[in-house]
Amino acid sequence: MTNVNAPNSKQPFSFAEIFAQKKEQAPPDSATIIASDGVKLFVAIYEPLSQQENINETDNISLVLYHGGGCHSGAGYQDLARNLSQTIGVAVYLPDLRGHGASGGPRGDAPSKEQVWKDVDSVLDFVSLRKPNTILYLGGHSSGGGLVVNYATKHANKRLNIDGCILVAPELGYRSGTARSDRNDFARINALAFIVNGILGVMGHSKAVRFEYPPELLASDAGMVGFNTVNMANAITPENPKEQMHQLCNEKPVGLWIGADDELFVTEKVTAFVENGNTAEIVPEKNHLGILIGIYSKIGLWIQRQGKPDPSA
Predict the structure, then answer these.
(1) Distance from C-alpha of 183 to C-alpha of 186, rounded to nearest angstrom
(2) Into which CATH architecture does domain 16-183+236-306 fall?
(3) How far, in Å, CA of 102 to CA of 100, rounded?
(4) Per-domain residue ranges of the chain
(5) Could you write out the DSSP letters of every residue in 235-280?
(6) H or E stretch including 91?
(7) What whole-number distance in Å separates Cα of residue 225 and Cα of residue 213?
(8) What does the alpha-carbon distance between residue 131 and residue 145 come to, in Å, rounded to a whole number?
């Protein structure tokens, strides 16, 4: 069996954080949301415990955070969500993309990129109804960060009441020029599928991106997905990252964090996309998944510094 944590492993990056947190308990709460096309969407819920004396929930702050490509809410994100809720007092909602984790739909697929963005609408509507007048942040890790950028800049029905965006080691797409040239590719691209679909529109459901997850991880966790189709990949991959990040940074507060030892991206190239006085921080001694452990304190401090949005803005 491959040692997925060995320093000289041929794996594209360390999966230790996923394996470690898979042993943890189920989320304190969860919900199933019905998407606009009838597909069931799973959301793990981590809300502050009001009886804890060290929690100040008076600001009513919520974060919807999306997982990375092929992953799901229960594969590495528990520490971040639990600590943000219990230590900082931020309610955290971890959705599973359709076709991932406990959500319904064909594995790794979507009817269209627009449907994935409509799914985000559905999750945000759920949170707004559950916590009226909440200060609402939308975030994502890795490809989840790419989804956030797409949703906030390309979706015609994007919610105007998102109060800021949080990006953790975001995948900004092949046009961003952020990929490390010396890495073992984690995502292997079938470029022909994208080209044919772009011209003829007939390969949207074709497997176009294959993730190099360890076989034992895929075998032990049915929620993991080893591929994304053209439609799903287009939903979570920014087409014009420079223009989209410029738009996002000028419309909403943006906080971005990436590990100095990230195995997939050149950290300085990723942080260079953040402008207009927004936050971009390289975190020492953290890799692509390791940044999920302990980053809650930086995200929590950033959220607290934002203050309450001006309703007249």
Answers:
(1) 8
(2) 3-Layer(aba) Sandwich (3.40)
(3) 6
(4) 16-183+236-306
(5) HHS-SSHHHHHHHHHHHS-EEEEEETT-SSB-HHHHHTT--TT-EE
(6) strand 91-95
(7) 9
(8) 24
Whole-number pLDDT of residue 171: 97
The amino acid sitting at 300 is G
> What DSSP element (H or E) covers 114?
helix 113-130
Backbone angles phi, psi at 61, to 5 degrees: -105, 140
CA distance 16 to 147: 24
Q: How many CB atoms lie within 10 A of CB 24?
A: 11
Given phi > 0 = left and psi -120 to 50 = alpha, else beta, which region is 221?
Answer: beta
For 5, the token pair is 């944590």
Alpha carbon distance 223, 73 (integer Å): 9
Q: pLDDT-derived band of residue 275, with 50, 70 and 90 as boundaries?
A: very high
Number of neighbours of residue 218 by Cβ within 10 angstroms: 15
With beta carbons less than 8 A apart as the criterion, state whether 154 and 117 touch: yes
- pTM given for the model: 0.91
